[in-house]
Task: structure prediction
Amino acid sequence: MLKETLRAPRERSHWRRVGKTLLALAMLAGLVLAPRAASAIERLKFKPGFNLFKPAQDVQLGREASGQADKQLPLLNDPEVARYVNNLGRRLTSFAPNNSSDYAWQFKVVNSSDINAFALPGGFIYVNRGAIEAAEDEAQIAGVIAHESGHVVMRHGTNQASKAMLAQIPLAILGGIAGESSSLASQVFAQLGGFGVNSWMLKNSRDAEKQADEVGTYILYQAGYDPHAMAQFFEIIQKKYPQRTLQFFSDHPVPENRIKDVDREIPLLGPPKDWTTDSPDFQAMKKRLLAMPPPPKPKAAPSASTLSPNPPAPSGRMLRYQGGGLTINYPENWQAQAREDSLSLAPPGGIGDEGQAFGASISRHRPGLGGGWGLVDATQQLLDSMRQSNPHLRVIGQTGMSLRGRPALSTLLENDSPLQGQKERDRLITVRDADSLLALVFIAPESFQKAYQSTFDSMLQSFELQ
Result:
C-alpha cells in the first residue's frame, strides 16, 4: 500500500510533463498552420465588385425584369415541381454569404429541354426543365442553383450595369438613375436595352463565372452536399448532351481549369463530411418531369432590340464613352453596347436581329500576317473577312488620312442595308494600335446619309486612342 502511494506522485509528475510536451507541440503546430488558416479565412471573404446600386435596388430591378421574363418564357406551372425547387433553393441560399436575406429568392422552372439556368439581380433564379432532367442526383442540380445564387450575392448583374452606365452616362446624372426612383428598371433598360435572351444581365465574364463557382462550392459545402457535384455536372452535360448545352456555355463561359479550381477550394472550406449526394424527393420529382408531355417547341427568340426603319434623329448633345483603350463622343439619345473586343453606338431601334442599320461600330482585329503587318494589307484582310458575311459589299474608294497623328485609311463602302430593299453607304476608318487593327465604321442607309453626316464627323473628331 505504501509503495503504491509513493509511486502515484511520480506518475502524476510524469503525465504532467507529457501534457506540457503535447501542449507545446500543439502550440507549435498552431504557429505553423496559422498562415494557412488565415489564408483560408481570407479566401472565403467573398466581396462583390464595383456597384452603383444598393442591394434593395437589385431586388427592384430583378423583380421588374422577372415580370418581363415570365411573359417571354414558357414556365412549367406544376405545383409539385415548383414546391420542390423552391424548397431546395431556399435551403441552399440560407447558407449563401453576403447578407443573402436581403434578396427576394424566387425559383422558377422553365419548360424547355435546353440545359440552362440563369439568375436575375435580387434573387430571381430560373432553371430549365432540361437541366433538372439531365442531373444524375440532387447534389448536381443543387450545384446549378448554388452557382446561380453565387451570381446574385456577388451582384454580377448590377455590377455589369454599373460599369456599362459609368462608361455611357455623366457622373452628374448617374445618381438620379441609380437613386430611389420607382421606375429604376425602365431607366436602366432605356440606357442598356431591355430584358431578353441577349440581355446584358445574362452575359457573365469568365471571372464572374469563376467567382460564382467559388460561392456555389461554398454553399454546397455548408448545406451538406458534395461540393464536387457542381463542377462534375458541368463536365457531364458537356460530354453527354453537347447540342443541348450550347446555350448554357454561351451564357456561362467556362473558366479555365474549373474542376481543378473547385478541388483546390474544397480543402479551404473545412474537413471532409459525410456529404449528401441524392434524395428520394429528387428522384421522384425527376420521374414526374420525365412522365410529362415534352416541352413546347421554342418560338423565335425575342430580341432586346427591334430594328426600326426610322429611329429618332441624333441628338445634338453628346456623351463621352471611355473604355477599352479609346474615347469617343456619341449622341445622348444613343445607346452604347460594349463587348470584349467591340463597341456598338446606335439609336434605339438602330440594331436588330438583322444587324446594325444606324450608328457606329468599333472593333479590334488581330491580322494573321505575322509581326510585320502593314495598315493596307491588314485593312484588305479585314475587308475580305467582311465579304464572307456581306457578299454584296463593294469598295467605292480608299484614301489615306491622319487620325490624331496616326496613319489611317478611310474606305468608302456600299452594302445592302439590314432594312429590306435599301442600300447603305458605310465609312470604314482603320488605324493600327499596338498589335491590333482598330476598325471604326459609320453606318446609315443612303437616304439618311445627309441627316447623319454631321454627327459622324463630330464623332470622328472626338475619337482618341489611349
Notes: Residues 1-15, 18-41, 170-175, 300-304 have pLDDT under 50 and may be disordered. The CA atoms of residues 133 and 289 lie 7 Å apart. The radius of gyration is 29 Å. Residues 1-36 form one domain.
